[in-house]
Amino acid sequence: MQRAAVMAGFDAAKFRAEVRGFCRDQVSADIHEQIGKHQYFSREQRIRWQRLLQAQGWFVGHWPKAHGGQGWGQLQRFIFIEELERAGTPWLTHFGTSFLGPVLCAFGNDAQRARFLGPIRDSTEWWCQGFSEPGSGSDLASLKLRADRGETHYRVTGQKTWTTMAQWADWIFCLVRTQAGGRPQQGISFLLIDLRSPGVTVRPIETFDGGQHVNEVFFDDVEVPLANLVGQEGEGWAIAKFIVSRERLLVTEIGKAFHLLGELHSLAATMSAGTQSLSDTAAFRRRAADLEVQYRTLRATAYAAVIEAEAGREHAIDASLLKIRGSELQQAIHDAITDLLARSGLAFQTEGISADISGYRHGDLRLPGLLHEHLHSRAASIYGGSNEIQRGIIAKTELRV
Ligand SMILES: Cc1cc2nc3c(=O)[nH]c(=O)nc-3n(C[C@H](O)[C@H](O)[C@H](O)COP(=O)(O)OP(=O)(O)OC[C@H]3O[C@@H](n4cnc5c(N)ncnc54)[C@H](O)[C@@H]3O)c2cc1C
């Protein structure tokens, strides 16, 4: 890794230590407390954290220098994200910094870059991603959201769904259909839409962890200036592919797996199986060792893939493979944690249980947060392209079926 980093023009070990130290020293007390309890972060906390990263020059480190970034390559970006995940800090709202920013640098015009890049860098505008529609998720090219071109505006009508954090967003970038007929991938364009425009409705979808991560977004004859078209009409599919190709390897989330493994070990150490700590039982050791081996194998595979990608040799199936194994590992660690926690019975709201009843408090303060996360982790094998679709890609590429 160090050799690849030197070739990419940075010192990997030094950079990693810097990011790790930053996460240790700069996370505020309230965020630190919530990391410890596995609680969701508020919009304000996320923005505050992103601004700290930006002040350090890291929030858009992967953007070209000409647009306020540091020109990081894939390896440096991967190390950065891995360290944030290991520390459990708030998930970056990737829609602006990771998706739209690079799109505008590559496909946008000067006016669009001048208008939109600054507010992404400073986290003054929050973006969300409008790709999926009812019936158009895996089969994205079948999307129907219509944008009819007028003299000065498009008129947009239809629906997006599963839109992450749209309830907090100011703007949405959408794949829209500007032309019917031809191959489904043709006639798709990339449009920037102000969510405060008349005719836009954002409706929450409650997920089964009880959270509001995703939304439906409805467009009823919404006027969008022609100036908000990115690239050319019909170029939307190419832009979508550009987005997917840039951050494909990050979906592995190995830093998150590391963080969760740490929680598994620490919970087991504080829970007992009769007279001994759970972490000393053979059953736990076997399961934890298996997860540890899976984690280390995945991490080594991920870095090998990133180093290849940095050298311009990304293999077509790497991202699919890492997405499948990364999401499965995350779910397996959550399963193990949940099995451990089951020993605490239904002590779901630990604060609500009287310590007087049995002389000690059941459960761990992390318990409610971890159970919510366990439920939400089921979505990891769906979002970003489901695991079945990834298996299909591997089969087509490797087995030519
Ligand atoms: C938590 C969460 C957040 C999301 N955030 C966003 C967001 O911010 N923006 C956005 O645009 N989208 C978002 N999505 C949508 C996500 O990209 C889609 O859910 C995903 O692509 C699957 O599409 P679908 O839900 O329409 O399921 P479908 O495509 O209808 O699939 C249903 C089932 O059939 C299987 N299937 C479908 N086709 C095939 C095939 N050819 N071969 C084998 N199996 C197949 C799938 O694997 C799945 O199990 C999010 C989803 C989730 C769960």
Report on this model:
With 401 residues, this protein is α+β, with helices and mostly antiparallel strands. The chain folds into three domains: 2-92, Butyryl-Coa Dehydrogenase, subunit A, domain 1, CATH 1.10.540; 127-237, Butyryl-CoA Dehydrogenase, subunit A, domain 2 (Beta Barrel), CATH 2.40.110; 247-399, Butyryl-CoA Dehydrogenase, subunit A, domain 3 (Up-down Bundle), CATH 1.20.140.10. It is 47% helix and 13% strand. It has 13 helices and ten strands. The strands form three sheets. A four-stranded mixed sheet has the order 1-4-5-8. Strand 6 (200-205) and strand 7 (214-225) form a beta hairpin. The chain is globular, with a radius of gyration of 22 Å. Flavin-adenine dinucleotide is lined by residues 128-132, 137-138, 162-164, 213-214, 379, 382-383, 385-386, 388-389, 392.
Helix-strand layout with pairing:
Layout: H1 2-8, H2 12-26, H3 29-37, H4 43-55, H5 74-87, H6 94-107, H7 110-121, E1 127-130, E2 146-149, E3 153-160, E4 171-177, E5 188-194, E6 200-205, E7 214-225, E8 229-230, H8 236-246, H9 254-270, E9 272-273, E10 276-277, H10 282-310, H11 318-341, H12 367-376, H13 387-399
Parallel strand pairs: 1-4
Antiparallel strand pairs: 2-3, 3-7, 4-5, 5-8, 6-7, 9-10
